[in-house]
Amino acid sequence: MSLTARHLEANGVPTVVLGSARDIVEHCRVPRFLFVDFPLGNPAGPPYDRVAQREIVEMAVRLLETAPGPETTRRAPHEWPGDPEWRLVYNRIDDKDPAALLAEGARRLNRMAKRPKRIL
Amino acid sequence: MKESKDASLAPVAYMERTRQYYRALGYPSDYRWAANDAAPFTSLAKPLAEARIAVVVTSPPMGDWSDDRPPPKTVWSGSVADAPEALFTLNLAWDKESTHTRDRETYLPLATLGALARSGVIGGLTERFHSVPTVYSHRETLEHDAPAILERVREDRADAALFVPL
């Protein structure tokens, strides 16, 4: 996603990324980034909150005009309305059985190996 | 207490979290995220209030997909005027414990952008939105998918693009 935004920008199309994985987007370096500090899955605002969604999406598109230069990051002021401990949840392993995690990994690798290769 | 509270509010370190997760799953090597030394920059050529915006997301279209029959990883486009009520998100990596994707506007904000167009914040949307798959290979993205998206937003005469990665 970030690589594609960079490609458009380098070819004359201004871009802005609206996303929640700040470290990954900034590692890739993009022209403009609105960081929304929510669980991965709802970058454009909390479910069914039309007011917050509009505020967040408007902040993002306004960066197209106001960003002073590349690698401009702004942070939406909104707080996630759900569990305040949400940051601990994603891909958590310390509360899981190591053997079960390894079994899940084996299952996934096996599934991936069976998939046909992408034809480009 | 204050220090630990502040630390708990820092943005999630997804790269480190993901590395540890896949090591625990027994994957043989760490994923290498794309890294660059600088970013390109193009100024918007007209006022935002006159600009046509293309939306680019990362989800596949809805379908009868499953673990054994996953959606193809491919660039695709959909109609904004006749937009789908939902995209397929279950096979993508997001926080399925903390939230849900039942509200399309949270990852494909076409109605929200339509409202912004009606109130004059943006000029409008292009006729199509686009989707670029998240793939393991940077080379596939750079040599195939990114040029395909560029071609499509040019066909649509977009003045700028809003990327909304799930």
Structure description:
- The complex is a heterodimer of chains A (120) and B (166).
- Chain A is α/β, with parallel strands linked by helices and 120 residues long.
- Helix content of chain A is 42%, strand content 11%.
- Chain A is built from 4 helices and 3 strands; from the N terminus they run H-E-H-E-H-E-H.
- In chain A, helix 3 (50-66) links the parallel strand 2 (32-35) and strand 3 (72-75).
- The radius of gyration of chain A is 18 Å and the shape is globular.
- The model of chain A has no long low-confidence stretch (mean pLDDT 95).
- Chain B has one domain (48-164).
- In chain B, strands 1, 2, 3, 4 and 5 form a 5-stranded mixed sheet that branches.
- Mean pLDDT of chain B is 93; it is low at 1-5.
- Strand 1 (15-19) of chain A pairs parallel with strand 5 (160-164) of chain B, so a sheet runs across the interface.
Which features does this protein show?
heterodimer; A: 120 residues; alpha/beta; 3 strands; 42% helix; B: alpha/beta; 5-stranded mixed beta sheet; 4 helices; 27% helix; 13% strand; globular
Summarize the structure.
The complex is a heterodimer of chains A (120) and B (166). Chain A has helices spanning 2-10, 22-28, 50-66, 98-114; strands at 15-19, 32-35, 72-75. Chain A has 120 residues and is an alpha/beta fold.
Blueprint (SSEs and pairs):
The complex is a heterodimer of chains A (120) and B (166).
Chain A: H1 2-10, E1 15-19, H2 22-28, E2 32-35, H3 50-66, E3 72-75, H4 98-114
Parallel strand pairs in A: 1-2, 2-3
Chain B: H1 2-8, H2 14-24, E1 52-57, E2 76-79, H3 110-118, E3 124-125, E4 128-131, H4 138-155, E5 160-164
Parallel strand pairs in B: 1-3, 1-4, 1-5
Antiparallel strand pairs in B: 2-4
